Description:
It contains three helices and nine strands; from the N terminus they run E-E-H-E-H-E-H-E-E-E-E-E. The chain is an alpha/beta fold.
Amino acid sequence: MPPRPEDEAWKLIVLDPRYVRLEPGEILVAPSTDPGWTPLFLTAGGVVLESGGVNSHGVVVAREYGIPAVVGVPGVTRTLNDGQAVTVNGTAGIVSPAHPDGEDAARVDHEGSAGGGTGRV
Length: 121
């Protein structure tokens, strides 16, 4: 299944996957992932990671589940806030936070992505 180009969701910053439950469509934002994180991908609307590349765990699993992913975004867990609206465009490697009025506040471009999506963090 190819990644979806755009999705609407909420962002949730996760530092430890053991005690977290993502609501369907939430954007998973984390430093990195490994196989222990895979259950969170079942309901995630997208993935944004601080580290990784085109063949990293997060990108491979996101591709398998057909959800957008952007990886290799240093400091993203500190830059974005829980509940913040964002656009995750994995095809272009762009994460765009939005102002409360819907205007894009900033843009983070980066390589190492899969698919695309729009969502809330």
